[in-house]
Amino acid sequence: MIGRLNHVAIAVPNLTVAADLYRDTLGAKVGPPGDEPNHGVTVVFVELENTKIELLYPFGENSPIQGFLDKNPSGGIHHICYEVENILDARDHLISTGARILGTGEPKIGAHGKPVLFLHPKDFTGTLVELEQV
């Protein structure tokens, strides 16, 4: 069901410092910041040859990333994202196996402009999983 790894998301306490680290120290191609108010984050994508790194910073007062950073002040891996061909088929399959979908269970539009869903970390060995339709 899952396809390739789309990205690894890292919550960061300072977006500029993190972007500079990937660009200047590691020599990666780093995109511009983009606000995603529906998800409560500002994102910067680091383009790699085989995948992406998504740097996450809180946007707005109710950002879920702020809670993560409160518990992990230095930042850290927040979630991983896998691609799926059909997000509704994937959702229905996961629900039929007992997996929990976060939120309403209806896909939202993610940072790439494509439908996404998040899966409960307790169902996936402590890892928050995002699915993105390709």
Explain what you see.
Strands 1, 2, 3, 4, 5, 6, 7, 8 and 9 form a nine-stranded mixed β-sheet that branches. The protein has helices spanning about 15-25, 65-70, 85-95, and strands at about 5-10, 30, 35, 40-45, 50-60, 75-85, 110, 115-120, 130-134. About 20% of the residues lie in helices and about 35% in strands. The protein is built from three helices and nine strands. With about 130 residues, it is α+β, with helices and mostly antiparallel strands. Strand 3 (about 35) and strand 4 (about 40-45) form a beta hairpin. The protein has a single domain (about 5-134), classed as Roll (2,3-Dihydroxybiphenyl 1,2-Dioxygenase, domain 1), CATH 3.10.180.
Q: Spans of 5+ residues with little confidence (pLDDT < 50)?
A: none
Indicate the CATH architecture. Roll
Class from secondary-structure proportions: alpha+beta
Number of domains: 1
Kindly estimate the percentage of residues that lie in beta strands according to DSSP. 35-45%
Number of strands: 9
The CATH class assignment is Alpha Beta
CATH topology: 2,3-Dihydroxybiphenyl 1,2-Dioxygenase, domain 1
- The pLDDT mean sits at 96
Secondary-structure element string? EHEEEEHEHEEE
Cα Rg: 15 Å
What is the number of helices? 3
Based on Cα principal axes, name the global outline. globular
CATH homologous superfamily name?
2,3-Dihydroxybiphenyl 1,2-Dioxygenase, domain 1
